[in-house]
Specification:
The complex is a heterodimer of chains A (about 300) and B (about 450). Chain A contains 13 helices and two strands, in the order ααββααααααααααα. By secondary structure, chain A is an all-alpha fold. In chain A, strands 1-2 form a two-stranded antiparallel ribbon. Chain B is globular, with a radius of gyration of 24 Å. Chain B is α/β, with parallel strands linked by helices and about 450 residues long. Classes of the chains: A mainly alpha (about 300), B alpha/beta (about 450). The interface between A and B is large, with 60 and 41 residues.
């Protein structure tokens, strides 16, 4: 946009026009200003304050007291923190693997089989349901005694399963609930990437006698890499921050089986008003997400495309 | 690349903890009168307190009282956030497990420092109740509203089918070794899928249709309706002192044997396992759905149990323990005045009224809770009686002084966060009650 304007200005350069070019910059600044205020107020300031609080002991009501690295020392010695990291990673792996695989299949089916807008809208429907509502609905469906899901299991001759109430099932169940909710949205992102792949590639492949699976692995997947990389980065960050589904269904239990990092942060902050420690845990979350995102970005080369 | 940066910024935001500030300052009144904000969490008590407040406003034409009700889960975080924003209530309903932290942070006004409540008299309330609200400095931080104890709610229909009557639940005994006659009763009331009772040969503890005893979960650190009354009847106490103790006694063998017996009922098939009730157990629903015969629960639940459809509800005393009589946890709510209030004297007038016979009789007549003043308690008993409910098992415990207090100590929130997963683990069967000894050390270290 900026280059276009300057080219135009250069072409029709007349006395007095140069000043208008400078005016553009000013105008641009004005347009950026509101968003910047939001960014500074709601992102950078809380970020800096959060990092500062992680070096303090603060209970909201009394003044924050500087304690140096005490919160971090406590964190490294805290078994519940390490358990939260393990549980969160487990959740992310189950959630992202299944979600991406399912979304990819849905997206390819949407591209290769149907152009129906109705189908596309239907696939997006679960995403329109709020996390809390989706969690509550599944909590009822999968309830041990009254849930229709468990009644179905019994009806087909299986044992009932304590989906949210046994340690082994809690995380996989929560991960799958969120797969259900997010797969349509992820599929749509991938679908958008698929639209960018030139159709003539498929035509030439078909002329050469390639099968659908061959085209998928030979054309679709390699050319989808940048989009897939971006989708992964976005969904992994979201996945690490899982909170509401856990809070509604298990509250972190049974015992600590689903006490993910975000929930542990909340427990410490709003349960025990230990905001200093909660801030230190949040900084740990920030560092983990930065590392994970950096690695992903490098490995998937999400910034480059193979289409050129 | 921009998207990437934005995401990093979004991730960075998780490190910043912002507090939602409730926007409800003291309103500007048009006629020069004072408006007080009063908060409570129990929706069932809202109608009663609205009547109280109406009566109060009639006497004090210059004071308006605005009642706000939030559910228990939101109440405490909203309250704390409102203190931070200096936009909290002037007067609010308080709980003994929470108020020690408020006292420590200086957000409550002692009642005797204000004119209307300067003549506070602990003897006007049921014995021992006012003591719950006395801070470590000996000052009174809450006006007792009501009290609660625990008793057994049961379904008479299930007793009849088992060939028993309500009389069979009188004079039950219990001990942690073999469970006494109490265990015999819940065993007999348990029925498996094939209709075999829990005390009959061939009973299948893994396929139970009706449990003798309903589950209210693991009980966390207080076990109020789960195991505190059983442990209390062995002579065990939570702390080294009645209130403001600095030591917990979870390492006491009497408690650990009680816990082993109680959660051992799961293996016997008399108590629903953790996986059936999950993180939000509800004993009254188990009675209502016919999946349990007896539920130990608090007096604040009388109305809920009485309203269960298809259940012919009765109330029985808790079993006598090794000490020779039943023991219940004795707890109650109170009204506290915020130190941030702009109208402390008016707030004290409201609190004085909430703690008066006039208001507590109004609350008693509603038949929801047992008010703290004897006149209020009497009014509640009469209301229950007129509805065909005999609530005397709850009162007798107090009259006979067969109670232990809810643990009132510092570090309540931290102790909860330590004990809840531990007790869940014991309920599930991951760990033994003997592991509480180590946990107890961790808790007692908090006080050093």
């Amino acid at each position: 946009m900026a280059t276009l304007t300057s080219e135009n200005a250069a072409r029709r350069q007349q006395p007095g026009q140069r000043r208008r070019r400078r005016d553009d910059t000013k105008l641009a600044m004005i347009f950026i200003l509101p968003a910047s205020i939001g960014l500074v107020t709601f992102y950078f300031w809380p970020l800096l304050r959060g990092i500062w609080l992680s070096f303090t002991s603060w209970d909201l009501l009394s003044a924050a007291e500087f304690v140096g690295l005490a919160n971090y020392e406590r964190m490294f010695a805290d078994p519940v923190f390490w358990n939260a990291i393990r549980v969160t990673l487990y959740y992310v792996v189950v959630n992202i693997t299944i979600q991406t695989a399912v979304a990819l299949v849905i997206a390819v089916l949407m591209q290769r089989l149907t152009q129906s807008t109705l189908v596309r809208s239907l696939i997006l429907a679960p995403y329109l349901v709020s996390n809390v509502v989706a969690a509550l609905v599944f909590l009822w469906i999968l309830d041990f005694q009254l849930g229709i899901g468990n009644q179905f299991l019994e009806w087909i001759g299986l044992d009932r399963i304590g989906f949210f109430t046994t340690e082994a099932w809690a995380i996989p169940t929560i991960a799958l609930v969120n797969v259900w909710r997010h797969m349509g949205y992820t599929a749509l992102l991938i679908f958008a990437g698929l639209q960018a792949i030139p159709g003539n590639l498929y035509e030439s492949a078909r002329v050469d006698g390639a099968s659908e699976p061959r085209m998928f692995f030979g054309i679709t997947l390699p050319l989808l890499r940048p989009i897939l990389g971006l989708v992964l980065i976005i969904s992994v960050i979201g996945s690490f921050q899982v909170f509401d589904t856990v809070s509604v269904t298990t509250g972190g239990g049974p015992v600590n089986a689903s006490r993910v990092l975000q929930l542990y942060i909340y427990d410490n902050a709003f349960g025990q008003f230990d905001f200093g420690y909660a801030a230190a845990l949040s900084v740990a979350m920030l560092v983990i997400l930065m590392i994970v995102t950096f690695i992903q970005y490098r490995v998937t080369r999400a910034g480059q495309t193979d289409l050129n | 690349m921009t998207k990437f940066r934005r995401r990093i910024a979004a991730a960075a935001a998780t490190a910043g903890l912002t507090v939602g500030l409730a926007a409800c300052g003291t309103p500007v009144s048009t006629d020069g009168s004072v408006t007080l904000d009063y908060w409570l969490w129990d929706s069932a008590q809202l109608p009663g307190y609205q009547k109280c407040v109406d009566a109060f406003e009639e006497e004090h034409s210059d004071i308006d009282v605005r009642i706000t009700q939030y559910g228990w889960d939101d109440y405490w975080s909203k309250l704390t956030a409102s203190f931070v924003a200096e936009a909290g209530p002037d007067v609010f309903t308080n709980h003994v497990s929470k108020y020690p932290e408020f006292v420590r942070r200086g957000v409550l006004l002692p009642l005797k420092s204000l004119e209307a409540t300067s003549d506070f008299d602990a003897d006007e309330f049921q014995d021992g109740l006012a003591k719950l609200w006395q801070g470590p400095d000996g000052k009174q931080y809450g006006m007792p509203k009501d009290f609660d104890t625990v008793a057994l709610f049961f379904n008479k229909k299930m007793l009849r089918k088992a060939g028993m009557t309500a009389e069979d639940l009188e004079g039950l005994t219990w001990n942690p070794r073999n469970g006494g006659t109490f265990e015999d009763v819940i065993a007999h009331l348990t029925i498996d899928k094939n209709g075999v009772r829990g005390d009959e040969p061939g009973f299948d503890p893994n396929n139970v249709k009706v449990y003798g005893l309903a589950s209210a979960g693991s009980g966390g650190y207080d076990g109020q309706t789960q195991w505190s009354w059983l442990a209390g009847s062995t002579g065990w106490r939570f702390n080294d002192q009645k209130t403001w103790g600095t030591e917990y006694n979870y390492d006491d063998p009497r408690l650990q044997k009680t816990i082993d017996w109680y959660f051992g009922l799961v293996d016997k098939g008399y108590l629903p396992p953790f996986q059936k009730v999950g993180s939000s157990p509800n004993a009254s629903q188990q009675l209502g759905s016919g999946s349990a015969a007896i539920a130990a629960d608090g007096s604040w639940m009388i109305r809920i149990y009485a309203a269960l459809e298809g259940v012919d509800m009765g109330i029985a005393k808790l079993p006598s323990g090794p000490v020779g009589h039943p023991v219940s946890m004795f707890n109650g709510l109170g009204d506290s005045i915020s130190a941030q209030t702009e109208h402390p004297e008016e707030a004290a007038e409201l609190v004085d009224f909430l703690g008066s016979d006039q208001c507590q009789v109004i609350i008693g007549k509603e038949g929801v809770v047992l008010p703290a003043r004897p006149a209020g308690t009497k009014a509640a008993m009469e209301t229950f009686k007129s509805q065909g409910i005999d609530a005397s098992p709850f009162i007798e415990l107090v009259e006979n002084d067969n109670t232990i207090l809810f643990p009132v100590t510092d570090h309540g929130a931290t102790i909860t966060s330590i004990m809840s997963p531990v007790m869940d683990g014991i309920y599930i069967g991951d760990r033994d009650a003997s592991s509480l000894t180590k946990v107890n050390k961790r808790i007692n270290n908090l006080f050093e």
